User: What shape does this take?
Amino acid sequence: MTAVLWCDNEAAVNRFNELKGDRHYSIASVNQADSDVLHELRWWKKQLPIELHAKWVKSHQEQCDTRESRLNRIADRLAALQHSATGEWVTKSKSAMLPHTRAQLHLPDGRHTGRVHTGVQYKLWGQNARTYIGRKLHLEEAWNLVDWDSLSRHHKSLSWQRRATRLKLIFRWAPTNARQCLVGQSDTPLCPLCGVEQETLDHVMGCDSPSATAAKREALAEFDQALDDIGTHPDIATLLCLAVDSGRRPLCDAESDRDLSGIMVAQDTIGWGIVRYGFIAKEWTAAQTHWAESRDPNHSPKKTLRWAKQVQEHMWSFVTAIWDHRNKEVHGKEKQEAAQKIVHALRAEQKSKNKKLSSSDGTQHSTYSQSTSQFPRSCS
Ligand SMILES: [Zn+2]
Assistant: This one.
């Protein structure tokens, strides 16, 4: 048995008929117009025991001479009745939508009201994102040990641009030469600063070229000072500095301090290479609180929360100081210098293309050499 669903939104009809099974939408489709309507329809399609097929009916027809057009007119009239209607949604979710905008969404775990697009993305992709992070950073076993609270509070405080940079660094998508070479965007995988090793992200963080070493030393001194300024337990500060600097497990006399041994055990499970990206164990904050309380009986939990977020900020500053230094060295310190480097790269690329052309057809391309001579002297 098949039922036909008539709708005057042609795009929605087409999309509806494409829907199959439980396949999730892509983020792009969630962001498109009428995605809330489609999700609603999809939910109903799944609930019904019969086949459901959508067909388009022209809206606002003058002459309603077919059954569908007459039904459409009735539906329009019913919809118009609701335009000014107000009422309470059944859901308890707080609406954060624009005034006069109302939508409610069915998902397997219930109905949602509010910022539908963000909500849908979170509901549909939250678990996928979690699985991805777990696999990529080997956190499946250590998931509950990570201090997600301070990590996400800091992450949300960053601009969109900085968040993007942060994710690129965490997930190894940053355009280092090793990665760019892999995808055919760079001729060499070698580090542009030292020219010795492949430029992976780990290498960027530990490159021993003179300028990179100096930049790192400076960033580390600032990190150390910042930890001191926010009243960090001296041993915690030392451990954090060593971990952030080397990306490896620091040597620690944990036997002497129960709090420190808790940190070491938890962070061993999470991993030390990702400490600098903010993936630290909750034990760091617990140990800091324990220490702060022993010095000040009135120490408030709020202070600890602030401390944890500040540690995240300072670790991020350390990472970006090194990454920004690398980018300035590669792309030029000033805008003009950066522009000149791009011109150089383009000219070199064009020259090699030109050479290939000349050798393949045996002719000289005088047009190109004329145009290059017009470049200002300073660029060559
Ligand atoms: Zn290097």
The beta strands are 2-7, 51-56, 104-107, 110-113. The chain has 16 helices and four strands.
